């Protein structure tokens, strides 16, 4: 497993000036991968790496022969859209690309003129999904979220007996995952008011977001084999932001006994930039369980979990109403969560999902589940923030909210900070609720 | 919508003699599509059409210029593996291919020598999945199955209030779908005996099959739009056999609150031949609800449903143990189901799944759910046949079964019969249970 190396050095600076700005998500220590093109013109989508407010066009750098021989073949995969072939490479091949790009963008690079010709301003770009996502599984890793939501759906029985024994998860819909910046219509569906005898077919009235992290799989496994927890992280390509939009009124009526279906399948948003696991290495942190909880079964445990099983990622969710946008008001922060508050670690999700022989494929997406923590300021969906819609809150514009209104934009951001290391960020994941189509 | 036409004429015969055998699944009236290659050698998989005990190699027929101009472009898509591009064509383009192939294989065809050079014996072939399946949704269309199973999982509350209002479904795992003939290892997972305080991690002890029909989507819809029930069938490419292998002990422990996950994701079997909706046209039959049940909501109803909303497909499940195989004993029939016994029609599943704006894609798979009917002889999984393992049954070999043992082969077959029409069949869907890997 790759540990902290020179590409993480806090003293490392880029000749791309915006990358040295303390506020940027994309210093030279980050180097996340994505798929982009210039918004104007008829370009094809292609692979890029974010640096400051620019994008390194990997194919353009290859065309100028800027990669060393040992990184060239892997860089060709990083230049193609979608990035599945790159994700499928062994971690050391991808690490060679990271080292090469870190050098090309560093102050030490003698070829900065040629490299600068390969930069595209992020302001001129549009994005596509970084991977062809063939399989999406969504988990329920936060005990706080499961407790808060469980209390609303099953007041007498919020946490079911299996929760502490296995990472509860379900299959999500892959076809309706879209990249940040694409908006969606409020879904229509069957809703059943507890006071009505019959359901109705109408636009969702309890539309919600769920702030999650998305784990993108690198190398997969063969059907019929399991990924050992000690190797699980080596199957991770990187992490991005995921908004698992949810129609709570559709959900509460449809979800028994086979789980959420149309309540979630209408749209899922993903951030365009994937922060690689190698970039996240310095922010590793320990992982533990509350005293008295069952010890994880052997296939869910390795000693490494205790010291570096989680990653100290903070996830913030913000909301900007249409009125706030019109008035130029900045988005209002609704919550900040910590990934280490999750009850189940990323490697445990992978060990669990493959324990029955299921094959993961490069580009598969695993959602963490809503990342709420024990602190009320970390409730990462409106269902929890308003306790099922019972307690509205007020936006800085004076508008009141229980659930999302048409025109609301939800923005997710995330970052890692640690003494002695540069802050790195995830960019943003943003989408706006459009009015429902006519039923 | 295509109705019965000359390609269905019972008097139509093929110069391929085996296609005129009354017992064949593949008379000239059927013409199902699949993906095959010769098992020996290093051929690429390619598109084919079954006729009697032969396969028409569509690409070989194109190379001999045997298709009329109006069918040529569509036939090129039917020659490529997987068949997604062909599935995505408008139904009338695919209908032109069917007409052309029906003529080429008919007794009237003057080019039978050239066409015969394009045939590959099914005995020499191996198959791949007919489509790249990016999304798999599985439904719960049989009220009898839901009642029988619901009684075991929730004795006091077998049928939940939503069942008669919407087709309950969930997302399945797409990556572990395999074509008939591929075997799988018994899954390992967390099992919780009701009498034990804690779960264990062990090979599944209650391994089951589920006999279903699989609907493969032809043309998809745009994200954010719904497919109207009156157009729903025009989005269907065809129907195949689906065995939704299920680990009942994993399922009962894991499934709350988010539904089945590892209990199903380890393996799913699909038959190699897709019977097109056009071939199924003569076997259309009416669809009705029991008296007193709620009327379907408007988006679930069109007058056509009452007269031709279902298709009279019979689905048989057979079991052959390792001992029976060794002794040359024929597989034992366990059940025969009727598709019209389903509570929800195929068009209703499509209207439901897209009602919230979810996009279906060409090659997407929708499972009917286990096709049990009210008759005990139509219980289409062991959980129902043995009432949760309480009532073992005896095979002709004298062996006893509650759930599946290692070495058991489960075989599904299906067919349509109607006076005045030829019987057509679906071929078979077969797989054998291999021992679990070591935990």
From TrEMBL, chains A, B:
<keyword id="KW-0106">Calcium</keyword>
<dbReference type="Pfam" id="PF09298">
    <property type="entry name" value="FAA_hydrolase_N"/>
</dbReference>
<dbReference type="InterPro" id="IPR015377">
    <property type="entry name" value="Fumarylacetoacetase_N"/>
</dbReference>
<feature type="binding site">
    <location>
        <position position="264"/>
    </location>
    <ligand>
        <name>Mg(2+)</name>
    </ligand>
</feature>
<keyword id="KW-0585">Phenylalanine catabolism</keyword>
<dbReference type="InterPro" id="IPR036663">
    <property type="entry name" value="Fumarylacetoacetase_C_sf"/>
</dbReference>
<feature type="binding site">
    <location>
        <position position="255"/>
    </location>
    <ligand>
        <name>substrate</name>
    </ligand>
</feature>
<keyword id="KW-0378">Hydrolase</keyword>
<keyword id="KW-0479">Metal-binding</keyword>
<feature type="binding site">
    <location>
        <position position="244"/>
    </location>
    <ligand>
        <name>Mg(2+)</name>
    </ligand>
</feature>
<dbReference type="GO" id="GO:0006572">
    <property type="term" value="P:L-tyrosine catabolic process"/>
</dbReference>
<feature type="binding site">
    <location>
        <position position="210"/>
    </location>
    <ligand>
        <name>Ca(2+)</name>
    </ligand>
</feature>
<feature type="binding site">
    <location>
        <position position="370"/>
    </location>
    <ligand>
        <name>substrate</name>
    </ligand>
</feature>
<feature type="domain" description="Fumarylacetoacetase-like C-terminal">
    <location>
        <begin position="138"/>
        <end position="433"/>
    </location>
</feature>
<feature type="active site" description="Proton acceptor">
    <location>
        <position position="145"/>
    </location>
</feature>
<feature type="binding site">
    <location>
        <position position="212"/>
    </location>
    <ligand>
        <name>Ca(2+)</name>
    </ligand>
</feature>
<dbReference type="InterPro" id="IPR011234">
    <property type="entry name" value="Fumarylacetoacetase-like_C"/>
</dbReference>
<dbReference type="Pfam" id="PF01557">
    <property type="entry name" value="FAA_hydrolase"/>
</dbReference>
<feature type="binding site">
    <location>
        <position position="268"/>
    </location>
    <ligand>
        <name>Mg(2+)</name>
    </ligand>
</feature>
<feature type="binding site">
    <location>
        <position position="244"/>
    </location>
    <ligand>
        <name>Ca(2+)</name>
    </ligand>
</feature>
<dbReference type="GO" id="GO:0046872">
    <property type="term" value="F:metal ion binding"/>
</dbReference>
<comment type="pathway">
    <text>Amino-acid degradation; L-phenylalanine degradation; acetoacetate and fumarate from L-phenylalanine: step 6/6.</text>
</comment>
<feature type="binding site">
    <location>
        <position position="154"/>
    </location>
    <ligand>
        <name>substrate</name>
    </ligand>
</feature>
<dbReference type="GO" id="GO:1902000">
    <property type="term" value="P:homogentisate catabolic process"/>
</dbReference>
<feature type="domain" description="Fumarylacetoacetase N-terminal">
    <location>
        <begin position="29"/>
        <end position="130"/>
    </location>
</feature>
<protein>
    <recommendedName>
        <fullName>fumarylacetoacetase</fullName>
        <ecNumber>3.7.1.2</ecNumber>
    </recommendedName>
</protein>
<dbReference type="GO" id="GO:0006559">
    <property type="term" value="P:L-phenylalanine catabolic process"/>
</dbReference>
<dbReference type="InterPro" id="IPR005959">
    <property type="entry name" value="Fumarylacetoacetase"/>
</dbReference>
<feature type="binding site">
    <location>
        <position position="251"/>
    </location>
    <ligand>
        <name>substrate</name>
    </ligand>
</feature>
<keyword id="KW-0828">Tyrosine catabolism</keyword>
<feature type="binding site">
    <location>
        <position position="138"/>
    </location>
    <ligand>
        <name>Ca(2+)</name>
    </ligand>
</feature>
<keyword id="KW-0460">Magnesium</keyword>
<feature type="binding site">
    <location>
        <position position="140"/>
    </location>
    <ligand>
        <name>substrate</name>
    </ligand>
</feature>
<dbReference type="GO" id="GO:0004334">
    <property type="term" value="F:fumarylacetoacetase activity"/>
</dbReference>
<dbReference type="InterPro" id="IPR036462">
    <property type="entry name" value="Fumarylacetoacetase_N_sf"/>
</dbReference>
């Amino acid at each position: 497993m790759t540990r902290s190396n020179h590409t993480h050095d806090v003293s490392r600076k880029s000749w791309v000036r915006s990358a040295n700005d303390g506020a940027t998500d994309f210093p030279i220590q980050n180097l996340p991968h994505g798929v982009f093109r210039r918004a104007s013109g008829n370009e094809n989508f292609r692979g890029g790496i974010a640096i400051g407010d620019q994008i390194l066009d990997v194919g353009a750098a290859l065309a100028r022969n800027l990669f060393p021989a040992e990184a060239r073949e892997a860089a060709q995969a990083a230049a193609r859209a979608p990035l599945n072939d790159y994700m499928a490479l062994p971690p050391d091949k991808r690490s060679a690309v990271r080292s090469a790009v870190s050098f090309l963008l560093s102050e030490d690079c003698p070829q900065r003129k040629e490299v600068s010709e390969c930069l595209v301003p992020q302001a001129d770009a549009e994005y596509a999904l970084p991977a062809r996502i063939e399989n999406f599984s969504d988990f329920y890793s936060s005990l706080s979220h499961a407790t808060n939501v469980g209390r609303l759906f099953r007041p007498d029985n919020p946490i079911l007996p299996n929760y502490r024994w296995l990472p509860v998860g379900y299959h999500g819909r892959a076809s309706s995952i879209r990249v940040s910046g694409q908006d969606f219509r409020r879904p229509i569906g069957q809703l059943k008011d507890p006071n009505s005898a019959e359901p109705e077919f109408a636009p969702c009235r309890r539309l919600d977001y769920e702030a999650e992290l998305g784990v993108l799989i690198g190398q997969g496994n063969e059907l019929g084999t399991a990924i050992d927890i000690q190797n699980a992280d080596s199957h991770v390509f990187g992490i991005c932001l995921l908004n698992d939009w949810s129609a709570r009124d559709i959900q509460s009526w449809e979800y028994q006994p086979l789980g959420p279906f149309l309540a979630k399948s209408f749209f899922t948003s993903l951030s365009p930039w994937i922060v690689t696991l190698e970039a996240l290495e310095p922010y590793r942190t320990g992982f533990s369980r509350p005293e008295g909880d069952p010890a994880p079964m052997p296939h869910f445990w390795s000693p490494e979990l205790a010291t570096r099983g989680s990653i100290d990622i903070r996830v913030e969710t913000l909301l900007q109403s249409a009125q706030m946008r019109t008035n130029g008001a900045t988005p209002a922060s609704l919550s900040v969560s910590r990934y280490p508050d999750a009850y189940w670690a990323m490697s445990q999700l992978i060990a669990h999902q493959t324990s029955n022989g299921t094959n993961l494929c490069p580009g598969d997406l695993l959602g963490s589940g809503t990342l709420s923590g024990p602190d009320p300021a970390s409730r990462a969906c409106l269902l929890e923030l308003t306790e099922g819609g019972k307690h509205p809150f007020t936006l800085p514009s004076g508008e009141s909210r229980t659930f999302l209104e048409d025109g609301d934009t939800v923005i997710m951001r995330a970052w890692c900070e640690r003494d002695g290391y540069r802050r790195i960020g995830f960019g943003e994941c943003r989408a706006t609720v459009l009015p429902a189509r006519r039923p």
